[in-house]
């Protein structure tokens, strides 16, 4: 795990040069990036960003990937105007920074976003995916929110599960074998708790040789050894959504 000087070894990775095909909108008190497919759909996915915020091109690229697969995708600013983490920030201040950005306290914003999707995008079936900080938020929502169809948590810090936790919806967990932030020991404990308590479908998958953020932070063309796993992770994410939505 991280040491005291660098409490979260979370790297922004390869920042994509990507403009996006969607548009920015105001959803009550929240700014959001929305991408819609060319044909109408009643299926929508909420995309929850990592610590680097809703404007990171990499995450918008994934939102547009969902749209290319037939989903309306919305990527809200779940920090609600607070500054995202910057690579130039002092990692020694990370724990204080994240205290005011609790992944388990986004319910109000999720309700606002779901209302928008239903009223303005014709959504009837809504799922959620999230990366890193957003992956932890997905775990929270899968345990607490009764109105979502399914979720995909990508390398989310495991923090909301106790000995009685039971998922409400089918959930897919993507982890990296060499993740310094979410070590495999924690993944093993999570699997044990899910096996004991969960009645709905779930899957925990570990991708060999990969590090934290591999699905949305790595450029396949400059990481050729990782390309098969990046593509597999993205394909698995889409397939899970297709199955349960």
Automatic annotation (TrEMBL):
Domain Dienelactone hydrolase: start-end pairs: 30-244
SUPFAM superfamilies, sorted: alpha/beta-Hydrolases
Keywords: Cytoplasm
Pfam families, sorted: DLH
The keyword Lipoprotein is annotated on this UniProt entry: no
A GO term for molecular function: hydrolase activity
InterPro entries found in the cross-reference section: AB_hydrolase_fold, CMBL, Dienelactn_hydro
Annotated compartments: Cytoplasm, Cytosol
GO cellular component terms given for this protein: cytosol
Family: Belongs to the dienelactone hydrolase family.
UniProt protein name: Carboxymethylenebutenolidase homolog
């Amino acid at each position: 795990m991280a040491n005291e000087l660098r409490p979260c070894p979370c790297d922004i990775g390869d920042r994509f040069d990507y403009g996006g095909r969607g548009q920015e909108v105001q959803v009550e008190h929240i700014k959001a990036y929305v991408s819609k497919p060319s044909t109408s759909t009643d299926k929508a996915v909420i995309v929850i960003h990592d610590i680097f915020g809703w404007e990171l091109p990499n995450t918008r690229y994934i939102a547009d990937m969902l749209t290319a697969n037939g989903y309306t995708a919305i990527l809200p600013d779940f920090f609600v105007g607070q500054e995202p983490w910057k690579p130039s920030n002092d990692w020694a201040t990370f724990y204080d920074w994240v205290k005011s950005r609790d992944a388990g306290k986004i319910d109000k914003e999720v309700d606002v976003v779901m209302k928008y999707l239903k009223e303005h995008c014709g959504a009837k079936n809504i799922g959620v995916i999230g990366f890193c900080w957003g992956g932890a938020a997905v775990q929270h929502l899968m345990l607490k929110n009764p109105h979502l169809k399914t979720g995909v948590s990508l390398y989310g810090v495991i923090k909301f599960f106790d000995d009685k936790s039971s998922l409400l919806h089918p959930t897919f967990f993507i982890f990296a074998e060499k993740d310094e932030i979410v070590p495999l020991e924690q993944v093993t404990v999570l699997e044990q708790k899910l096996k004991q308590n969960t009645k709905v479908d779930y899957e925990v998958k570990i991708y060999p040789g990969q590090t934290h953020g591999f699905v949305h932070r790595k450029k396949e063309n400059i990481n050729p050894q990782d390309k098969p796993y990046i593509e597999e992770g993205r394909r698995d994410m889409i397939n899970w959504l297709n199955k349960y939505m």
